[in-house]
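Subject: two folds for Thursday's group meeting

Dear M.,

Sorry for the delay on this. The cluster queue was jammed most of the week, so I only got both jobs back this morning. I'm pasting them in the order they finished. Each block is the input sequence followed by the predicted structure tokens. Could you check whether the formatting survives your parser before we put anything on slides? The first protein is the one we discussed after the seminar.
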Amino acid sequence: MHLQNAKVNPMSSCPLFKDSYNTEMNETATAQRPMAFHVLAKPIGPICNLDCKYCFYLEKEKLYGDEKSWKMDPELLEQYIKSYIEGQQTPRIDFAWQGGEPTLLGVDFFRKVIELQEKHCPPGKQIFNALQTNGTRLDDEWGEFLSKHNFLIGLSLDGPPDLHNKYRVDKGGNDTHHLVLRGAEILKKYNVDFNALCVVNRYNAREPLRVYHFLKELGTDFFQFIPIVERDGEHEEVLDLSSPPQIQKDDSPVSGWSVHSEDYGDFLNAIFDEWVRNDIGKYYVQLFDIQLELYMGHPSSLCIFKETCGDALAVEHNGDLYSCDHYVYPEYHLGNVMNDNLGDMVAAAKQREFGQQKKTTLPKQCKECEFLNLCNGECPKNRFLNDIDGEPGLNYLCKGLMKFFRHTKPYFERMRNLLMQRRAPAELMMQLRHEEEKFDKKKVKPNDPCPCGSGKKFKQCHMRKVR
């Protein structure tokens, strides 16, 4: 399933892979045409060898119910690659390949991809490829190919076996964790760069440090934690796929695997507390990097935290282009790459309006929030609650994100200050150790302000670290 693609467009529809954190996405290009845009290509549509219980994309088969073949045909593949390259006005061009499960197409399909990219790449441009996979079909042939052509891999893994296998099963309901680890070993054997993509769900959100410690042993230094949010009965309500569900009630139920908002905040905070004391500069958590980026005054390179969106689209196996991977519904269909110019579709008024609505539909509570610049309402797909004034459009994850923003603010401010002094953020780890060693546990009472300056009570902050 597609979560949020983080290295190439960078999510997804957003950034999800490490090198793409700095991909330039100009939102105010001449004539409304972005200097660069991101398209998540699904050359096999929603077809997958797994049956992950929380996957939102499997239902998309119903869009093409009479489909005989789900493989993007050679003529369409060439047209897409050619038009995508032509639409990018930056030296670096990032392709992202997902599904479904793209490895079902076989290595030869992607050999053809490389051949066509080399054919149509003009002088002065560099092309990079990222592929998101469940890892269960990776073998030596894949490892050799991915290594030779410097593919960046997003590997889906939700933690230790019991946590991963809760929802990520095959078509027969069998566990898949051991198969993913086998795939990870292939990637390491051939020195293929990869990122761990962890879906934060109702189950594994309860054990953040088990998840984090497991991923740190996996063999990659880059992690993305993606919250799963799906309204209860969402699949059943959209069987006709005419439009996304529009539920806007404070008590809107979510599916049994969706993470509770505040649990998501607690999950992030627990991992952050370990990371900020031990792992800065050693391991990279996409959300933490994005927040530091925002504290430094830079625009977010991840679409969910941008002020507006619309520059991260999705193309189906038959060439149909949609506004976003989370909005593959007829009303968000922009055209087909075989009949319409890709750059023109991205720059079309319909798509520009789609992107602007992320900002213009914010409820009052968001507009007045002290953390608006860090969040910008997060992803529109999750904005289905009413705010405190009854205005629709509040994000389901708001409470959890507020927990995270409040908890981490003093630390990000200190990292920002270090950077402004041309010093490494990793220095904060040593500073915190020295401060915590100085705490006189007998004199600082649980309800006193924490000596670290966070503004929290000692019992809610460093007391649990030093006692």
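Second protein, same layout:
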Amino acid sequence: MLKIRLARGGAKKRPYYYIVVADSHSPRDGKFIERVGTYNPMLPRDGEQKRVTLKTDRIAEWLGKGAQPTDRVARFLSQDEALAGKVKWTQSNNPKKAEPGKKAQERAAERAQREADRAEAEAAAKIEAAEAAVRAKEEAKAAAEAARNAPAPEPEAAAEEAPAEAAAEEAPAAEAEKTEG
């Protein structure tokens, strides 16, 4: 199938395009059948020089033979008075162009799942910490309540324990004096 398309020329960051008739399977800048115009995007739109130059008679002949213009070239041809009736250019609309591909959608879904899992784990940890704090308060209250409700120790029992402790402390001191003397 024949295409009327752009072939890039020029230097790096200084594009210049040739409008060529080429087989649709040949490379963009490769083999072509005929050069039928030029396009210089570096020129200003409203300048004295023309950005697009076309060989309208050759293009009309190739269109008659069945060559199909690409979208960009069809825009140029529809703006030319001599070819406006032969080529109709309408702005294409591809609403899915901005949508990510399958792999990107899968990665986004995995990322969202990981975020949801992490948020769920954080929420569970916060809930668990809050429950532990509540349990600790309840245990403290229960211990305080038990201490208040517990019977007070009898003074006699406390007195009996105190001399026993004092005697235990005095015994090592007495042994230390015997060994010194």
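Two things I noticed about the second structure. Strands lie at 2-11, 14-23, 34-39, 52-54, 68-69. The mean pLDDT is 83.

Cheers,
T.
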